[in-house]
Specification:
The complex is a heterodimer of chains A (about 120) and B (about 525). With about 120 residues, chain A is an all-alpha fold. Chain A is about 70% helix and about 0% strand. The mean pLDDT of chain A is about 85. Chain A has one domain. The termini of chain A are far apart. With about 525 residues, chain B is mostly helical. In chain B, about 70% of the residues lie in helices and about 0% in strands. In chain B, strands 1-2 form a two-stranded antiparallel sheet. Chain B is globular, with a radius of gyration of 23 Å. The mean pLDDT of chain B is about 90. Classes of the chains: A mainly alpha (about 120), B mainly alpha (about 525). Chains A and B meet through helix 2 and helix 3 of A and helix 5 and helix 6 of B.
Chain lengths: ~120, ~525
Protein backbone atom coordinates (compact mmCIF):
# COMPACT_ATOMS: atom_id res chain seq x y z
CA UNK A 1 0.00 0.00 0.00
CA UNK A 2 2.88 2.35 0.79
CA UNK A 3 4.15 1.96 -2.77
CA UNK A 4 0.72 2.62 -4.23
CA UNK A 5 0.11 5.78 -2.18
CA UNK A 6 3.63 7.10 -2.67
CA UNK A 7 3.56 6.59 -6.44
CA UNK A 8 0.10 8.16 -6.64
CA UNK A 9 1.43 11.28 -4.90
CA UNK A 10 4.46 11.24 -7.20
CA UNK A 11 2.45 10.91 -10.43
CA UNK A 12 -0.04 13.58 -9.39
CA UNK A 13 2.79 15.98 -8.52
CA UNK A 14 4.67 15.25 -11.74
CA UNK A 15 1.54 15.76 -13.84
CA UNK A 16 0.71 18.94 -11.94
CA UNK A 17 4.14 20.43 -12.46
CA UNK A 18 4.11 19.51 -16.17
CA UNK A 19 0.77 21.27 -16.62
CA UNK A 20 1.97 24.29 -14.61
CA UNK A 21 4.79 24.76 -17.07
CA UNK A 22 2.38 25.04 -20.03
CA UNK A 23 1.88 28.72 -19.10
CA UNK A 24 -1.71 28.89 -20.35
CA UNK A 25 -4.53 29.58 -17.90
CA UNK A 26 -6.52 26.36 -18.37
CA UNK A 27 -3.65 23.83 -18.12
CA UNK A 28 -2.11 25.79 -15.26
CA UNK A 29 -5.34 25.70 -13.24
CA UNK A 30 -5.66 21.96 -13.95
CA UNK A 31 -2.04 21.54 -12.86
CA UNK A 32 -2.68 23.37 -9.61
CA UNK A 33 -5.72 21.17 -8.97
CA UNK A 34 -3.57 18.05 -9.49
CA UNK A 35 -0.95 19.47 -7.13
CA UNK A 36 -3.56 20.12 -4.44
CA UNK A 37 -4.85 16.52 -4.82
CA UNK A 38 -1.27 15.34 -4.40
CA UNK A 39 -0.76 17.43 -1.29
CA UNK A 40 -4.07 16.27 0.19
CA UNK A 41 -3.10 12.62 -0.18
CA UNK A 42 0.34 13.49 1.20
CA UNK A 43 -1.22 15.13 4.26
CA UNK A 44 -3.28 11.97 4.83
CA UNK A 45 -0.17 9.83 4.93
CA UNK A 46 1.56 12.07 7.47
CA UNK A 47 -0.51 10.39 10.20
CA UNK A 48 0.85 6.97 9.09
CA UNK A 49 -1.15 4.57 6.92
CA UNK A 50 -3.65 2.44 8.82
CA UNK A 51 -6.65 0.47 7.62
CA UNK A 52 -9.86 0.16 9.59
CA UNK A 53 -8.42 1.67 12.77
CA UNK A 54 -10.65 3.91 14.91
CA UNK A 55 -9.64 7.56 15.36
CA UNK A 56 -11.16 7.89 18.87
CA UNK A 57 -10.00 6.24 22.11
CA UNK A 58 -11.77 2.94 22.80
CA UNK A 59 -11.31 0.07 25.17
CA UNK A 60 -9.32 -2.88 23.87
CA UNK A 61 -7.93 -1.16 20.76
CA UNK A 62 -4.17 -0.97 20.17
CA UNK A 63 -3.89 0.73 16.76
CA UNK A 64 -5.43 4.12 16.11
CA UNK A 65 -5.75 6.28 13.03
CA UNK A 66 -4.37 9.79 13.64
CA UNK A 67 -7.39 12.13 13.43
CA UNK A 68 -5.43 15.35 13.12
CA UNK A 69 -4.24 14.97 9.47
CA UNK A 70 -7.85 14.32 8.49
CA UNK A 71 -8.85 17.65 9.99
CA UNK A 72 -5.90 19.31 8.25
CA UNK A 73 -6.88 17.75 4.92
CA UNK A 74 -10.43 18.99 5.35
CA UNK A 75 -9.19 22.55 5.87
CA UNK A 76 -6.82 22.23 2.92
CA UNK A 77 -9.57 20.90 0.65
CA UNK A 78 -11.93 23.73 1.53
CA UNK A 79 -9.25 26.37 1.00
CA UNK A 80 -7.99 24.93 -2.29
CA UNK A 81 -11.55 24.53 -3.56
CA UNK A 82 -12.32 28.17 -2.86
CA UNK A 83 -9.02 29.33 -4.32
CA UNK A 84 -9.57 27.34 -7.52
CA UNK A 85 -13.00 28.93 -7.93
CA UNK A 86 -11.46 32.39 -7.48
CA UNK A 87 -8.68 31.79 -9.96
CA UNK A 88 -11.11 30.40 -12.54
CA UNK A 89 -13.20 33.56 -12.28
CA UNK A 90 -10.21 35.91 -12.49
CA UNK A 91 -8.68 33.86 -15.31
CA UNK A 92 -11.96 33.95 -17.26
CA UNK A 93 -12.19 37.70 -16.78
CA UNK A 94 -8.63 38.21 -17.98
CA UNK A 95 -9.17 35.93 -21.00
CA UNK A 96 -12.45 37.54 -22.04
CA UNK A 97 -10.97 41.02 -21.59
CA UNK A 98 -7.69 40.64 -23.42
CA UNK A 99 -8.47 37.62 -25.65
CA UNK A 100 -5.24 35.96 -24.54
CA UNK A 101 -4.78 33.20 -22.01
CA UNK A 102 -1.03 33.30 -21.47
CA UNK A 103 -0.13 33.61 -17.81
CA UNK A 104 3.40 34.94 -18.37
CA UNK A 105 4.21 38.58 -19.05
CA UNK A 106 3.87 39.72 -22.63
CA UNK A 107 7.11 40.56 -24.36
CA UNK A 108 7.44 43.99 -25.96
CA UNK A 109 7.06 42.39 -29.39
CA UNK A 110 3.71 40.86 -28.39
CA UNK A 111 2.51 44.18 -27.03
CA UNK A 112 3.48 45.92 -30.26
CA UNK A 113 1.56 43.29 -32.26
CA UNK A 114 -1.45 43.60 -30.00
CA UNK A 115 -1.50 47.35 -30.49
CA UNK A 116 -1.39 47.22 -34.30
CA UNK B 1 -6.47 35.27 30.58
CA UNK B 2 -7.62 38.47 28.94
CA UNK B 3 -9.24 38.46 25.53
CA UNK B 4 -7.43 41.50 24.14
CA UNK B 5 -4.91 39.42 22.25
CA UNK B 6 -7.51 38.12 19.82
CA UNK B 7 -9.08 41.54 19.29
CA UNK B 8 -6.83 42.47 16.31
CA UNK B 9 -8.16 39.37 14.51
CA UNK B 10 -11.79 39.49 15.63
CA UNK B 11 -12.38 43.22 15.18
CA UNK B 12 -11.73 43.38 11.40
CA UNK B 13 -13.32 39.94 10.97
CA UNK B 14 -16.61 41.26 12.38
CA UNK B 15 -16.35 44.69 10.80
CA UNK B 16 -15.87 43.38 7.24
CA UNK B 17 -19.16 41.44 6.96
CA UNK B 18 -20.93 44.28 8.76
CA UNK B 19 -19.68 46.68 6.09
CA UNK B 20 -20.86 44.35 3.33
CA UNK B 21 -24.26 43.71 4.86
CA UNK B 22 -25.20 47.02 6.44
CA UNK B 23 -23.44 49.63 4.34
CA UNK B 24 -23.28 48.02 0.95
CA UNK B 25 -24.40 51.01 -1.11
CA UNK B 26 -23.19 53.82 1.15
CA UNK B 27 -19.56 54.62 0.51
CA UNK B 28 -19.69 57.32 3.21
CA UNK B 29 -20.77 54.93 5.97
CA UNK B 30 -18.25 52.37 4.74
CA UNK B 31 -15.48 54.95 5.03
CA UNK B 32 -16.48 55.97 8.55
CA UNK B 33 -16.72 52.37 9.75
CA UNK B 34 -13.46 51.37 8.12
CA UNK B 35 -11.47 54.30 9.55
CA UNK B 36 -13.05 53.83 12.99
CA UNK B 37 -12.12 50.14 12.86
CA UNK B 38 -8.51 50.87 11.99
CA UNK B 39 -8.23 53.55 14.69
CA UNK B 40 -9.59 51.07 17.23
CA UNK B 41 -7.05 48.53 15.94
CA UNK B 42 -4.23 51.02 16.53
CA UNK B 43 -5.45 51.55 20.10
CA UNK B 44 -5.61 47.79 20.76
CA UNK B 45 -2.21 47.25 19.13
CA UNK B 46 -0.67 50.03 21.23
CA UNK B 47 -2.10 48.45 24.37
CA UNK B 48 -0.73 45.03 23.41
CA UNK B 49 2.68 46.47 22.56
CA UNK B 50 2.89 48.28 25.91
CA UNK B 51 1.80 45.13 27.69
CA UNK B 52 4.58 43.06 26.13
CA UNK B 53 7.23 45.81 26.19
CA UNK B 54 8.61 44.56 29.50
CA UNK B 55 9.10 41.07 28.07
CA UNK B 56 5.79 39.54 29.19
CA UNK B 57 4.54 36.87 26.83
CA UNK B 58 0.76 36.84 26.59
CA UNK B 59 -0.97 33.64 25.64
CA UNK B 60 -4.51 33.25 24.32
CA UNK B 61 -5.93 29.74 24.11
CA UNK B 62 -8.93 29.45 21.82
CA UNK B 63 -11.68 27.55 23.65
CA UNK B 64 -9.31 27.23 26.63
CA UNK B 65 -7.77 24.06 25.15
CA UNK B 66 -4.18 23.68 26.32
CA UNK B 67 -1.36 23.76 23.79
CA UNK B 68 -0.36 21.73 21.80
CA UNK B 69 -3.90 20.34 21.41
CA UNK B 70 -5.65 23.64 21.03
CA UNK B 71 -4.80 26.62 18.85
CA UNK B 72 -2.96 29.41 20.62
CA UNK B 73 -2.23 33.03 19.86
CA UNK B 74 0.99 34.34 21.36
CA UNK B 75 1.85 37.99 21.84
CA UNK B 76 5.49 38.73 22.49
CA UNK B 77 7.51 41.84 21.69
CA UNK B 78 8.06 40.88 18.03
CA UNK B 79 4.47 40.04 17.13
CA UNK B 80 2.95 43.02 18.92
CA UNK B 81 5.41 45.35 17.19
CA UNK B 82 4.41 43.94 13.80
CA UNK B 83 0.70 44.22 14.70
CA UNK B 84 1.18 47.87 15.64
CA UNK B 85 3.11 48.55 12.42
CA UNK B 86 0.33 46.95 10.34
CA UNK B 87 -2.40 48.95 12.06
CA UNK B 88 -0.55 52.26 11.63
CA UNK B 89 0.23 51.52 7.98
CA UNK B 90 -3.41 50.51 7.47
CA UNK B 91 -4.66 53.87 8.72
CA UNK B 92 -2.54 55.94 6.33
CA UNK B 93 -3.25 53.67 3.37
CA UNK B 94 -6.96 53.88 4.12
CA UNK B 95 -6.83 57.68 4.33
CA UNK B 96 -5.08 57.75 0.96
CA UNK B 97 -7.62 55.40 -0.60
CA UNK B 98 -10.42 57.66 0.64
CA UNK B 99 -8.66 60.88 -0.34
CA UNK B 100 -7.83 59.72 -3.85
CA UNK B 101 -11.21 58.08 -4.41
CA UNK B 102 -9.67 54.66 -5.14
CA UNK B 103 -12.11 52.97 -2.76
CA UNK B 104 -15.03 54.12 -4.91
CA UNK B 105 -13.70 52.79 -8.22
CA UNK B 106 -14.86 49.23 -7.55
CA UNK B 107 -17.01 47.56 -4.94
CA UNK B 108 -16.24 46.16 -1.50
CA UNK B 109 -12.86 47.86 -1.09
CA UNK B 110 -13.35 48.47 2.63
CA UNK B 111 -14.62 44.97 3.41
CA UNK B 112 -11.69 43.35 1.60
CA UNK B 113 -9.33 45.80 3.30
CA UNK B 114 -10.56 44.69 6.73
CA UNK B 115 -10.27 41.00 5.79
CA UNK B 116 -6.74 41.67 4.61
CA UNK B 117 -5.88 43.28 7.96
CA UNK B 118 -7.43 40.31 9.76
CA UNK B 119 -5.21 37.86 7.86
CA UNK B 120 -2.05 39.86 8.47
CA UNK B 121 -2.78 40.33 12.18
CA UNK B 122 -3.53 36.63 12.58
CA UNK B 123 -0.31 35.63 10.81
CA UNK B 124 1.67 37.80 13.22
CA UNK B 125 -0.07 36.55 16.35
CA UNK B 126 -0.52 32.83 15.80
CA UNK B 127 1.61 30.30 17.65
CA UNK B 128 0.72 27.37 15.42
CA UNK B 129 2.21 26.57 12.01
CA UNK B 130 -1.00 25.27 10.45
CA UNK B 131 -2.83 28.30 11.69
CA UNK B 132 -0.13 30.40 10.06
CA UNK B 133 -1.03 28.67 6.78
CA UNK B 134 -4.72 29.43 7.31
CA UNK B 135 -4.05 33.10 8.03
CA UNK B 136 -1.75 33.27 4.98
CA UNK B 137 -4.70 32.05 2.92
CA UNK B 138 -7.03 34.60 4.54
CA UNK B 139 -4.70 37.47 3.74
CA UNK B 140 -4.05 36.10 0.24
CA UNK B 141 -7.69 35.64 -0.70
CA UNK B 142 -8.46 39.17 0.46
CA UNK B 143 -5.43 40.40 -1.48
CA UNK B 144 -6.71 38.70 -4.66
CA UNK B 145 -9.85 40.77 -4.40
CA UNK B 146 -7.94 43.96 -3.65
CA UNK B 147 -5.39 43.29 -6.38
CA UNK B 148 -8.05 43.34 -9.12
CA UNK B 149 -10.04 46.15 -7.47
CA UNK B 150 -11.32 48.59 -10.11
CA UNK B 151 -10.66 46.04 -12.88
CA UNK B 152 -9.01 46.60 -16.24
CA UNK B 153 -7.38 44.06 -18.55
CA UNK B 154 -3.73 44.54 -17.56
CA UNK B 155 -4.69 44.42 -13.89
CA UNK B 156 -6.68 41.20 -14.38
CA UNK B 157 -3.79 39.59 -16.23
CA UNK B 158 -1.37 40.59 -13.49
CA UNK B 159 -3.94 39.31 -10.99
CA UNK B 160 -4.01 35.87 -12.62
CA UNK B 161 -0.22 35.66 -12.34
CA UNK B 162 -0.32 36.75 -8.74
CA UNK B 163 -3.02 34.28 -7.73
CA UNK B 164 -1.41 31.34 -9.53
CA UNK B 165 2.01 32.03 -8.07
CA UNK B 166 0.60 32.22 -4.57
CA UNK B 167 -1.44 29.04 -5.05
CA UNK B 168 1.77 27.21 -5.92
CA UNK B 169 3.34 28.74 -2.80
CA UNK B 170 0.42 27.53 -0.66
CA UNK B 171 0.79 24.00 -2.04
CA UNK B 172 4.48 24.03 -1.14
CA UNK B 173 3.54 25.28 2.34
CA UNK B 174 1.20 22.30 2.79
CA UNK B 175 3.90 19.87 1.69
CA UNK B 176 6.26 21.42 4.24
CA UNK B 177 3.65 21.21 7.00
CA UNK B 178 2.90 17.59 6.15
CA UNK B 179 6.58 16.70 6.29
CA UNK B 180 6.96 18.45 9.65
CA UNK B 181 3.90 16.72 11.08
CA UNK B 182 5.07 13.34 9.82
CA UNK B 183 8.45 13.80 11.51
CA UNK B 184 7.41 15.33 14.82
CA UNK B 185 3.66 14.77 15.28
CA UNK B 186 2.93 18.39 16.18
CA UNK B 187 2.48 21.75 14.48
CA UNK B 188 2.54 23.99 17.52
CA UNK B 189 5.67 26.12 17.22
CA UNK B 190 6.69 25.92 20.87
CA UNK B 191 6.10 22.18 20.96
CA UNK B 192 8.05 21.80 17.69
CA UNK B 193 10.97 23.73 19.17
CA UNK B 194 11.25 21.09 21.89
CA UNK B 195 10.70 18.07 19.67
CA UNK B 196 12.96 19.02 16.75
CA UNK B 197 15.93 18.99 19.14
CA UNK B 198 15.12 15.34 19.97
CA UNK B 199 15.31 14.11 16.37
CA UNK B 200 18.38 11.87 16.29
CA UNK B 201 21.23 12.71 13.94
CA UNK B 202 20.61 9.78 11.53
CA UNK B 203 16.91 10.54 11.10
CA UNK B 204 17.03 14.20 10.17
CA UNK B 205 16.30 13.70 6.44
CA UNK B 206 12.61 14.51 6.68
CA UNK B 207 13.00 17.44 9.02
CA UNK B 208 15.73 18.94 6.85
CA UNK B 209 13.53 18.71 3.75
CA UNK B 210 10.71 20.33 5.70
CA UNK B 211 12.97 23.15 6.93
CA UNK B 212 14.11 23.92 3.38
CA UNK B 213 10.58 23.75 1.94
CA UNK B 214 9.33 26.08 4.65
CA UNK B 215 12.15 28.51 3.96
CA UNK B 216 11.23 28.44 0.24
CA UNK B 217 7.60 29.26 1.05
CA UNK B 218 8.55 32.21 3.24
CA UNK B 219 11.09 33.34 0.64
CA UNK B 220 8.31 33.42 -1.96
CA UNK B 221 6.29 35.69 0.35
CA UNK B 222 9.35 37.82 1.03
CA UNK B 223 10.14 38.02 -2.72
CA UNK B 224 13.69 36.77 -2.32
CA UNK B 225 15.61 36.23 -5.57
CA UNK B 226 15.12 33.83 -7.42
CA UNK B 227 11.50 33.66 -6.15
CA UNK B 228 10.71 37.34 -6.73
CA UNK B 229 9.22 37.13 -10.24
CA UNK B 230 5.65 37.60 -9.07
CA UNK B 231 6.32 40.90 -7.35
CA UNK B 232 7.11 43.56 -9.99
CA UNK B 233 4.06 43.18 -12.22
CA UNK B 234 1.57 42.46 -9.41
CA UNK B 235 2.68 45.41 -7.29
CA UNK B 236 2.96 47.72 -10.27
CA UNK B 237 -0.49 46.81 -11.65
CA UNK B 238 -2.31 46.72 -8.30
CA UNK B 239 -4.20 49.88 -7.28
CA UNK B 240 -1.74 52.18 -5.49
CA UNK B 241 -3.26 51.97 -1.97
CA UNK B 242 -3.36 48.19 -2.30
CA UNK B 243 0.28 48.06 -3.39
CA UNK B 244 1.10 50.24 -0.39
CA UNK B 245 -0.69 47.82 1.93
CA UNK B 246 1.12 44.94 0.22
CA UNK B 247 4.34 46.54 1.52
CA UNK B 248 3.57 44.79 4.82
CA UNK B 249 2.86 41.45 3.11
CA UNK B 250 6.47 40.89 2.07
CA UNK B 251 7.30 41.57 5.72
CA UNK B 252 4.97 38.75 6.76
CA UNK B 253 7.41 36.43 4.98
CA UNK B 254 10.36 38.05 6.75
CA UNK B 255 8.53 37.80 10.09
CA UNK B 256 7.79 34.11 9.53
CA UNK B 257 11.46 33.43 8.74
CA UNK B 258 12.58 35.25 11.90
CA UNK B 259 10.00 33.44 14.04
CA UNK B 260 10.44 29.91 12.72
CA UNK B 261 14.20 30.02 12.28
CA UNK B 262 14.90 31.39 15.75
CA UNK B 263 12.33 29.25 17.55
CA UNK B 264 11.94 25.94 15.72
CA UNK B 265 15.12 25.67 13.67
CA UNK B 266 17.58 27.88 15.55
CA UNK B 267 20.98 28.58 13.94
CA UNK B 268 22.79 26.28 16.38
CA UNK B 269 20.60 23.29 15.43
CA UNK B 270 22.92 20.81 13.72
CA UNK B 271 20.34 19.32 11.34
CA UNK B 272 19.73 22.61 9.52
CA UNK B 273 23.23 24.05 9.80
CA UNK B 274 24.32 25.97 6.71
CA UNK B 275 20.79 26.95 5.69
CA UNK B 276 21.29 30.57 6.74
CA UNK B 277 24.89 31.33 5.86
CA UNK B 278 25.40 29.08 2.81
CA UNK B 279 22.01 29.56 1.09
CA UNK B 280 20.04 32.45 2.54
CA UNK B 281 22.80 35.06 2.68
CA UNK B 282 23.96 34.82 -0.97
CA UNK B 283 20.36 34.81 -2.19
CA UNK B 284 19.68 37.90 -0.10
CA UNK B 285 22.77 39.67 -1.46
CA UNK B 286 21.70 38.88 -5.04
CA UNK B 287 18.22 40.25 -4.20
CA UNK B 288 19.78 43.52 -3.08
CA UNK B 289 21.79 43.75 -6.29
CA UNK B 290 18.92 42.80 -8.63
CA UNK B 291 16.47 45.09 -6.88
CA UNK B 292 18.74 48.09 -7.13
CA UNK B 293 19.74 47.37 -10.74
CA UNK B 294 16.01 47.10 -11.47
CA UNK B 295 15.54 50.57 -9.97
CA UNK B 296 18.05 51.93 -12.46
CA UNK B 297 16.64 49.96 -15.40
CA UNK B 298 12.90 50.56 -14.86
CA UNK B 299 11.05 52.40 -17.61
CA UNK B 300 8.03 53.23 -15.48
CA UNK B 301 7.81 54.69 -11.99
CA UNK B 302 5.63 51.91 -10.54
CA UNK B 303 8.09 49.22 -11.68
CA UNK B 304 10.90 51.29 -10.21
CA UNK B 305 9.20 51.32 -6.81
CA UNK B 306 8.45 47.57 -7.06
CA UNK B 307 12.12 46.82 -7.69
CA UNK B 308 13.15 49.08 -4.83
CA UNK B 309 10.88 46.97 -2.61
CA UNK B 310 12.70 43.82 -3.81
CA UNK B 311 16.02 45.50 -3.02
CA UNK B 312 14.95 46.57 0.44
CA UNK B 313 13.53 43.11 1.17
CA UNK B 314 16.93 41.75 0.13
CA UNK B 315 18.50 44.14 2.61
CA UNK B 316 16.18 42.85 5.36
CA UNK B 317 17.04 39.27 4.45
CA UNK B 318 20.79 39.99 4.57
CA UNK B 319 20.34 41.27 8.12
CA UNK B 320 18.19 38.28 9.07
CA UNK B 321 20.56 35.74 7.54
CA UNK B 322 23.36 36.92 9.82
CA UNK B 323 21.24 35.37 12.61
CA UNK B 324 22.98 37.27 15.38
CA UNK B 325 21.11 39.44 17.91
CA UNK B 326 22.67 42.53 16.31
CA UNK B 327 21.57 41.38 12.85
CA UNK B 328 17.97 40.68 13.91
CA UNK B 329 17.78 44.00 15.77
CA UNK B 330 18.96 45.79 12.61
CA UNK B 331 16.51 43.78 10.50
CA UNK B 332 13.55 44.78 12.69
CA UNK B 333 14.58 48.44 12.58
CA UNK B 334 14.86 48.19 8.80
CA UNK B 335 11.55 46.30 8.44
CA UNK B 336 9.68 49.23 10.02
CA UNK B 337 11.57 51.67 7.80
CA UNK B 338 11.14 49.69 4.60
CA UNK B 339 7.40 49.14 5.16
CA UNK B 340 6.76 52.85 5.63
CA UNK B 341 9.11 53.95 2.82
CA UNK B 342 7.80 51.37 0.33
CA UNK B 343 4.19 52.29 1.07
CA UNK B 344 4.95 56.01 0.78
CA UNK B 345 6.66 55.52 -2.59
CA UNK B 346 3.73 53.52 -4.02
CA UNK B 347 1.36 56.27 -2.94
CA UNK B 348 3.65 58.94 -4.40
CA UNK B 349 3.76 57.11 -7.73
CA UNK B 350 -0.04 57.29 -7.71
CA UNK B 351 0.15 61.02 -7.01
CA UNK B 352 2.35 61.28 -10.12
CA UNK B 353 -0.12 59.21 -12.13
CA UNK B 354 -2.99 61.45 -11.03
CA UNK B 355 -1.05 64.58 -11.85
CA UNK B 356 0.33 63.73 -15.29
CA UNK B 357 -1.75 60.81 -16.53
CA UNK B 358 1.11 58.34 -17.07
CA UNK B 359 4.02 56.81 -15.19
CA UNK B 360 6.44 56.42 -18.09
CA UNK B 361 9.87 57.83 -17.33
CA UNK B 362 9.91 60.16 -20.33
CA UNK B 363 9.71 63.93 -20.25
CA UNK B 364 6.16 65.27 -20.39
CA UNK B 365 4.65 68.66 -19.74
CA UNK B 366 4.61 69.78 -16.06
CA UNK B 367 2.11 67.84 -13.97
CA UNK B 368 -0.62 69.17 -11.77
CA UNK B 369 0.54 69.62 -8.17
CA UNK B 370 4.17 69.11 -9.20
CA UNK B 371 5.85 71.05 -6.38
CA UNK B 372 4.39 69.11 -3.46
CA UNK B 373 4.59 65.75 -5.25
CA UNK B 374 8.23 66.41 -6.11
CA UNK B 375 9.07 67.26 -2.50
CA UNK B 376 7.41 64.07 -1.25
CA UNK B 377 9.15 61.99 -3.94
CA UNK B 378 12.47 63.54 -2.92
CA UNK B 379 11.92 62.57 0.73
CA UNK B 380 10.67 59.07 -0.15
CA UNK B 381 13.57 58.43 -2.54
CA UNK B 382 16.12 59.56 0.06
CA UNK B 383 14.56 57.21 2.58
CA UNK B 384 14.44 54.23 0.23
CA UNK B 385 17.92 54.73 -1.25
CA UNK B 386 19.36 55.02 2.26
CA UNK B 387 20.84 58.49 2.19
CA UNK B 388 21.18 60.57 5.35
CA UNK B 389 19.25 62.08 7.07
CA UNK B 390 16.37 59.56 6.94
CA UNK B 391 16.09 56.14 8.56
CA UNK B 392 17.21 54.06 5.56
CA UNK B 393 20.71 55.37 6.17
CA UNK B 394 20.63 54.36 9.84
CA UNK B 395 19.28 50.92 8.92
CA UNK B 396 22.15 50.31 6.52
CA UNK B 397 24.62 51.60 9.09
CA UNK B 398 23.27 49.07 11.60
CA UNK B 399 23.63 46.32 8.98
CA UNK B 400 27.23 47.24 8.12
CA UNK B 401 28.00 47.34 11.82
CA UNK B 402 26.35 43.96 12.46
CA UNK B 403 28.11 42.38 9.47
CA UNK B 404 31.59 43.04 10.87
CA UNK B 405 31.68 39.70 12.66
CA UNK B 406 30.50 37.69 9.66
CA UNK B 407 32.85 35.73 7.36
CA UNK B 408 31.07 37.32 4.42
CA UNK B 409 31.67 40.87 5.71
CA UNK B 410 33.53 41.93 2.56
CA UNK B 411 30.74 40.72 0.28
CA UNK B 412 28.05 42.31 2.40
CA UNK B 413 29.81 45.67 2.58
CA UNK B 414 30.58 45.69 -1.14
CA UNK B 415 27.05 44.69 -2.22
CA UNK B 416 25.27 47.07 0.12
CA UNK B 417 27.43 50.07 -0.69
CA UNK B 418 27.63 49.58 -4.47
CA UNK B 419 23.92 48.76 -4.84
CA UNK B 420 23.01 51.80 -2.74
CA UNK B 421 24.95 53.95 -5.20
CA UNK B 422 23.09 52.34 -8.11
CA UNK B 423 19.72 52.94 -6.48
CA UNK B 424 20.61 56.59 -5.82
CA UNK B 425 21.36 56.93 -9.54
CA UNK B 426 18.07 55.26 -10.41
CA UNK B 427 15.99 57.47 -8.15
CA UNK B 428 17.86 60.61 -9.22
CA UNK B 429 17.28 59.79 -12.88
CA UNK B 430 13.58 59.13 -12.31
CA UNK B 431 13.13 62.30 -10.28
CA UNK B 432 14.93 64.53 -12.73
CA UNK B 433 13.01 63.15 -15.72
CA UNK B 434 9.65 63.41 -13.96
CA UNK B 435 9.99 66.80 -12.35
CA UNK B 436 12.82 68.81 -13.95
CA UNK B 437 12.76 67.85 -17.63
CA UNK B 438 9.06 68.67 -17.62
CA UNK B 439 10.01 72.36 -17.86
CA UNK B 440 11.61 71.75 -21.25
CA UNK B 441 8.44 70.31 -22.78
CA UNK B 442 5.72 72.71 -23.85
CA UNK B 443 2.24 71.60 -22.72
CA UNK B 444 0.35 70.31 -25.77
CA UNK B 445 -3.05 71.70 -26.54
CA UNK B 446 -4.91 68.46 -27.19
CA UNK B 447 -4.07 66.62 -23.96
CA UNK B 448 -6.60 67.42 -21.24
CA UNK B 449 -5.30 69.12 -18.09
CA UNK B 450 -5.19 66.78 -15.11
CA UNK B 451 -6.54 67.72 -11.72
CA UNK B 452 -4.14 67.98 -8.83
CA UNK B 453 -4.47 65.14 -6.27
CA UNK B 454 -6.80 65.67 -3.31
CA UNK B 455 -5.48 67.25 -0.09
CA UNK B 456 -6.31 64.14 1.97
CA UNK B 457 -4.07 62.08 -0.32
CA UNK B 458 -1.20 64.46 0.39
CA UNK B 459 -1.93 64.30 4.12
CA UNK B 460 -1.72 60.48 4.06
CA UNK B 461 1.61 60.46 2.21
CA UNK B 462 2.93 63.30 4.36
CA UNK B 463 1.93 61.30 7.44
CA UNK B 464 3.99 58.32 6.28
CA UNK B 465 7.00 60.56 5.59
CA UNK B 466 6.55 62.16 9.03
CA UNK B 467 6.55 58.68 10.58
CA UNK B 468 9.81 57.95 8.75
CA UNK B 469 11.27 61.17 10.17
CA UNK B 470 10.11 60.16 13.65
CA UNK B 471 11.63 56.70 13.08
CA UNK B 472 14.91 58.51 12.42
CA UNK B 473 14.74 61.00 15.27
CA UNK B 474 13.84 58.33 17.84
CA UNK B 475 16.18 55.78 16.29
CA UNK B 476 17.96 55.29 19.62
CA UNK B 477 14.78 54.24 21.41
CA UNK B 478 13.57 52.13 18.49
CA UNK B 479 16.90 50.36 18.15
CA UNK B 480 17.16 49.60 21.85
CA UNK B 481 13.62 48.18 21.64
CA UNK B 482 14.44 46.03 18.59
CA UNK B 483 17.58 44.86 20.42
CA UNK B 484 15.40 43.74 23.32
CA UNK B 485 13.16 41.93 20.79
CA UNK B 486 16.22 40.16 19.39
CA UNK B 487 17.33 39.22 22.91
CA UNK B 488 13.88 37.74 23.56
CA UNK B 489 14.02 35.79 20.28
CA UNK B 490 17.41 34.29 21.06
CA UNK B 491 16.26 33.16 24.52
CA UNK B 492 13.10 31.26 23.50
CA UNK B 493 12.69 29.28 26.72
CA UNK B 494 10.14 31.68 28.33
CA UNK B 495 8.08 31.59 25.10
CA UNK B 496 8.10 27.78 25.03
CA UNK B 497 7.26 27.37 28.70
CA UNK B 498 4.51 30.00 28.57
CA UNK B 499 2.84 28.20 25.68
CA UNK B 500 3.26 24.64 26.92
CA UNK B 501 3.03 24.98 30.70
CA UNK B 502 0.01 27.26 31.09
CA UNK B 503 -2.79 24.97 32.25
CA UNK B 504 -5.99 24.64 30.27
CA UNK B 505 -8.40 21.89 29.21
CA UNK B 506 -6.57 18.63 28.42
CA UNK B 507 -3.26 19.76 29.94
CA UNK B 508 -1.11 17.13 31.59
CA UNK B 509 -2.62 16.27 34.98
CA UNK B 510 -0.59 17.42 37.94
CA UNK B 511 0.36 15.28 41.00
CA UNK B 512 -2.55 13.81 42.92
CA UNK B 513 -4.80 13.52 39.89
Amino acid sequence: MELLVASAIGFLTAGGIYLLLRLRTFPVILGISLLTYAVNVFLFTTGRLTIGAPPILRDGVETYADPLPQALVLTAIVISFGMTAVVVMIGLGAFLGSDDDHVDDQTEQDEAEANT
Amino acid sequence: MTHWLIAPVVLPALLAPFIVLAARYHIGIQRVLSVAGVVALIAVALGLAMQSADGTITLYRLGDWAAPFGIVLVGDRLSTLMVLLTAVLGLFVLLYAIGSGWDNRGRHFHALFQFQLMGIMGAFLTGDLFNLFVFFEVLLIASYGLMIHAGGNTRLRAGVQYVLFNLIGSTLFLFALGAIYAETGTLNMADLAERVAFVSAEETVGIRIAAVLLLLVFAIKAALVPLHFWLPSSYAEAPAPVAALFAIMTKVGAYAIIRVYTLVFPPELEATAGLHDVWLLPAALISVAIGMVGVLAAKKLDRLVAFSVIGSMGMVMVMISLFTPAGIAAALYYIVHSTLAGAALFLISDLVRTGRGSLGLTAKAPMAGAALTAALFFAGAIAMAGLPPLSGFLGKLLLLNAAFASDMAVWIWATVLISSLISILGFARAGSVLFWKAKSVAPSEDSPAQDAPAPLAYIAVGGLIALLAAHTVFAGYVHSYTSSIAAQLFAPQPYISTVLDTPGKLSTPKEGY
